[in-house]
Amino acid sequence: MLYLTMEHSTRMFMENTLALEMRRLLESNAQPQGFLQFPSTSLGSSPTYWQACDSRGNVLGSTDNLRGHVLPLSDTGLRSVQEGQAVYEVTRVNNVPMLVYSHPVTMSGGTLGILQVARSIAEQEQAVQTLQTSLVFGGVFTLLIAVGGGWLIAGVSLRPIDQMTRTAHMIGIERNFSRRVQHNGPQDEVGRLATTFNSMLFALETAYQQVAQALQAQRSFIADASHELRTPLTTLRGNLALLQREPPISTEDRTAVLGDIVDENERMIRLVNDLMTLARADYAPKVELETISLPRLFADIERQAKSLNPTCTFSVRNIPDMQVIASRDLLKQVLLILLDNAFKFTPEQGCVELCAQQRGDQVFINVRDTGIGIAEATLPHIFQRFYRANQARSGSGYGLGLAIAKALIEKQRGQIHAESEPGQGSTFTIILPASVASIPVTHQLPDNAQPAKVYSYAQS
Ligand code: ADP
């Protein structure tokens, strides 16, 4: 654009200059015969050349500075002038580039003549040529700098992305989510991408670890379950072999063996039932929750607990009509598991207590005993599947009771935890949401409000 504009404006300037010279001459020579008296001075510094021709282009006269050279006029130009049109032509005279302006005039005697004025455009051509060369070289040079600079800048700014790509690739190969992208630059788009990428890796690492742990837990669960099943099956196999023996065993031995078989069978049924309960708790999509009146549930449990043959004192604290959101059957099952354990681990002179209290929108149900307690080191493990802290006293238990209790309580959107002091006793606490009807008015606060006061109803 610069080149074209420059070339055009230079040309226009020259054409205007020549047109002005021509007009001046024409104005100063009112008499047609005076056209051959060319002006001695000209516009600008460069010399102006004049030439007069007849209508066929034959030269009639010219200025001395032409030194006998002729200002040419092309056939097309001649025809245009003959038709009365002035023309500009670029031509070469004595190897010098010239702009020639040919103008039709009426010569003395009324005949048509051609008056030509010309100037050298060598300087202008040279200037435009220099500009062209500068533009070409400058353009190529700038392009090279731009390509090189762009290459460098893109390389530097895309390096973290390249690093991320390589990290992602390595993670794919190694399955190592602990890798992180190193980015010390500013928190621009790339910086934010690196941060997001790292937090995604962290989330993946956590999820991967959880899946690995779950898989490990599943494996050990299957191993434990098979191990527990193998013992009664082996015993059964041995007992059946005894029954098949020839000669047959005595009637008393036979009765004892059959008794063993029934016991082992019952143990197996219990284990399979426990495993099924756990599996259901794990995979059942959701349980139906309802509003349960705790005093009524406690009365039921008090009756049923007698079938567990407690040797120690068992008491249920009378509580005001408290209502929880839970599944009646599941909550009952959990409380019976906790009471069964409490009776098992509490000596005859000890006591077991079932009570509840409401704090705000939560109900705390406690199963408290004054039994042998649980050692501090084992307390965190008692809710694990197949965990038995006290094998000798656990008797026929498989270490699944508390695991089932935990799974069932979590299904009801509650929590369970244990506190214990070895030799003093243990307290298992279940926390469940209270029914809205039983929440004191002061506690029915908006979701984002903090409860101001905690109410306790733990009175006998
Ligand atoms: P199990 O079905 O074999 O009784 P649980 O899961 O119910 O297994 O209990 C796991 C372990 O927790 C038991 O082996 C026992 O050592 C301990 N435990 C549970 N409840 C009590 C309790 N009330 N007092 C003392 N120890 C307890």
What do these coordinates show?
- With 460 residues, the protein is α+β, with helices and mostly antiparallel strands.
- The chain has three domains: 2-120, PAS domain (Beta-Lactamase); 189-281, Signal transduction histidine kinase, dimerisation/phosphotransfer (DHp) domain (Helix Hairpins, Orthogonal Bundle); 284-443, 2-Layer Sandwich (Heat Shock Protein 90), CATH 3.30.565.10.
- 48% of the residues lie in helices and 18% in strands.
- The protein has helices spanning 2-28, 75-82, 122-174, 189-244, 251-283, 294-305, 328-344, 391-394, 401-411; strands spanning 48-54, 59-62, 87-93, 96-106, 112-120, 290-293, 313-316, 323-326, 351-359, 362-369, 415-421, 425-433.
- A five-stranded antiparallel β-sheet has the order 2-1-5-4-3, sandwiched between helices. The protein has a five-stranded mixed β-sheet with strand order 7-9-10-12-11. A two-stranded antiparallel sheet has the order 6-8.
- Strand 3 (87-93) and strand 4 form a beta hairpin.
- Helix 4 runs antiparallel to helix 5, helix 6 crosses helix 7 (328-344) and helix 7 (328-344) packs antiparallel against helix 9.
- The radius of gyration is 55 Å and the shape is rod-shaped.
- Mean pLDDT is 85; it is low at 442-460.
- Adenosine-5'-diphosphate binds next to helix 7 and helix 9.
